[in-house]
Design a protein that fits this description.
559 residues, alpha+beta, Adenine-n6-DNA-methyltransferase TaqI, Chain A, domain 2, 3 domains, 4-stranded antiparallel beta sheet, 43% helix
Amino acid sequence: MSAVENIITDNLPIWSSSFQSKSSSGRGTSSKRTLYGVKKLRELILDLAVRGLLVPQDPKDESASVLLGKIAAEKEQLIKEGKIKKQKELQSVSIDKITFPVPLNWEPERFGNVYTMEYGNGLKQSARSNTGEFPVYGSNGIVGTHKDACISEPCIVIGRKGSAGALNLCRNRGCWVTDVAYSIVPPVSLNLDFVFIQLQTLGLDKLGKGIKPGLNRNEAYSLELYFPPLAEQHRIVAKVDELMALCDTLEQQQEDSIQAHETLVEALLEALTDAIDADASQTAWQRISEHFDVLFTTEHSIDKLKETILQLAVMGKLIPQDPKDEKISAQIDKAVQYKSEIAELKKIRADKEKYLACARFVEPTNWCWLCLGDFMHVLGGKRVPAGYKLLNDKTDHVYLRVTDMKNHSITQDDLKYIEPKIYESIKRYVISADDIYITIAGTIGYVGAVPDNLDGANLTENAAKLVFGEMDKNFLIYVLSSIYVQRQFQHAVNQMAQPKLSLVSIKGTSVALPPLAEQHRIVAKVDELMAISDKLKDSLQQAQQTQIHLTDAVVENAL
């Protein structure tokens, strides 16, 4: 077994367990995993390959200096034939500045003295035949096909604009490279697959500059490369293919294991939400708690746990009911009376619609199904006049946008303001710290409250406010954030050019309400369990970070 294979097998726990979970949307529980250990292992294999540490050298191989001489002669011939333009000769790599031992028979050389990066040719999407003859490459892969080719040999495509430095290998004898990319046709004296390995280790993507990153080929031309004899290139490619196949197997095993783990967690948590009452939930929870340290070991599983806690809470399955609580009917009467008083005080028009609540699950004793419009006002915000630009400089009047509404609150690092005369024209459309907001356009269904210091801020037309009394605000936020309510919102969104959730649809949303005392107890319990879940996630992230540092250290030592 080679030294490299020893590195792989001796550190299998590191390659297998180092992964990060990254949220795909910032609000849902789905996540895209980056299997960090396998990713670093792949990078290590490539780095070892281009340093001559992957396969042993053979002193019988023809020296790379002879190889570079052939490449230089080939390049001169192409220049004479007008197939490539003559480039400025770059200064050779100084031997005393090489940072690692270069194997015997290898030779250093500048990128630009060996390779030529040719600009692609413009080909609009409408001009492509898409008949399948030749692939068309953009900056980061195939974007269509065309009946003609602008390159007639296998080549390497390098992203020039947008996905700067992205690499794609085209083995076809013919392709079209568009003007957002470069192409390299390697010298015939080099192994195409080795060249692709070599370029992957240069960090070309890091050379991209600008808002829409662009790669300047002159910067790439100055990079240092190290060339082995052609026979060793073939051996390196074979070994890389072998080891990458091992990585594929390891990665698939991890994916299968993670998927099985997620399925198990979701099935056990589903048993909690399917339980008929708090007692049945307690029994299901007991089964989970006995294996807590095994089940909740990923960010995905912790997010599912938090989602389940919230669902149990709003279904009355998180804590037991107390028959001594005031009847929910009495509380509803008070809420309806409050709604009427607010309408008279603020001259809010009475709702013309009649709402019919629809039960989404079997509610506990002394809970009641209502539509939001039965006991609260649902009111819209107001846009600023057309052409008016929100201010960065502080005034007395904050204008809240959908982008400010995150994590059940308002982010205050980039607030916008309006001047007094604009405020005077839209001053009725403000939100109180006692209200709840719901985003209704752009990002739909975010729910939260305004901090006390922003009480009375103006509200965007892309959000609504809920005005209510005799209810626990935090309980309502949890209810409105729950799966069964969010599904109602999504089903009610119109399918016009800009999807929007109407105020009438919000008013017709069905919710299950417990007595006020139970609402308070539920909020306290949810807050307690969410805090525990957050600590669990923090510990997990710290452990993952430690694992990442360990992985990096193993890679560094291997090099």
